[in-house]
Amino acid sequence: MSGHKCIVTGGAGFIGSHVVDLLIELGHDVVILDNLSTGRTSNLNPKATLHRVDIRDLDTIRPHFKGCRWVFHAAAWPRIQPSFDDPVTHEQINVVGTVNCLLAARDAGVGRFIYFGSSAVYGTPDEIPTTENAGIHCYNPYALHKYSGEQYCLILGRHWGVPAVSLRMFNVYGPRSYNFGQPNSAYSPVIGIFHHLNKQRQPLTITGTGGQSRDFVHVRDVAHAFVATAESGISWDVFNVGCGTSHSINEIARRISDQIVYIAERPNEAAITHADIGKIKRLVGWEPKITLDKGLDMLE
Predict the structure, then answer these.
(1) Domain assignment present for 190
(2) Other C-beta atoms within 10 Å of 136: how many?
């Protein structure tokens, strides 16, 4: 097939860079929009074109959307505790930035707009496994921002005729997840932190009892979910992206190291995440391929 021009905002970040890599493997022409505030140049695929721009500036990003077929909107500040410390900046990036990208996509006649949503919107869920119909419980500004951005995609997307879909990701892990150069790295995905500490021959640090559990999904599987959704004919809908299983933090830590220390519990976080992925399997045809054991073996 002939490739499409694709934009990946935040394409120098953890998940965005893996989406970039897969799109290039599939023969697409990829443009990355990233101000490198949290992304890293080492994550950049040399076959992609980088424009160092800020999504808060609509006039700056708008020209790059011309001729674009698919937009993958990953750019965000994706950390919980810092969103309490500086909610205004997080709102501007995660919500206003999303609206700007939607405006640019509308004006360019973009064919698909895929939003990087989050399972954080469920809080501690009403139902386990959690379906897309579960109640929304935003325990922190980050979750609220992701939910607001998602709703803008669905409401404005439908109003403007921009075919938008949100993928609510659960706990994504894999290569590039730990960014030691960023001040927010303490809130990086837990598997990435554990792997980094183990390589440094330091004990793994667990907040609380370690009994909290998470649905871990490998970033390569997640990238395939985004591309499969772009290729589908589905618009203005929401899908969970997880593995459909849940593992305790203690279990993950013990698979990596026997040196473990416990510190105070971190507030405002869910006790459990466990995705029901039946909807995306049925309507998009995606399901994860990488088991947790295999994924842990694949860590750099």
Answers:
(1) no
(2) 14
The enclosing domain of 158 has a CATH number of 3.40.50.720
Look over the chain and give the mean of its residue pLDDT values, rounded to a whole number. 93
Measured CA to CA, the distance from residue 164 to residue 177 in angstroms comes to 26
Q: Which residues are annotated as catalytic? A: 142
Tokens 């697409």, residue? 28
Buried/exposed code over 27-36 (b: 16+ C-beta within 10 A; e: otherwise): ebbbbbbbbe
Q: How many CB atoms lie within 10 A of CB 50?
A: 19
Name which of 172, 114, 121, 116 is nearest 147 in CA terms: 121
Q: Which domain holds residue 82?
A: 5-173+217-244+276-291
pTM recorded for the entire structure: 0.94
Sequence-ordered list of residues with C-beta below 8 angstroms from that of 106, at least 6 positions apart, any chain: 156, 160, 161, 162
Taking only the tens place, the pLDDT of each residue in 230-245 is 999 899 999 999 999 9
* Omega prior to 141 cis, within 30 of 0: no
Whether 80 contacts 129, CB under 8 Å: no
What domain count does the chain have? 1
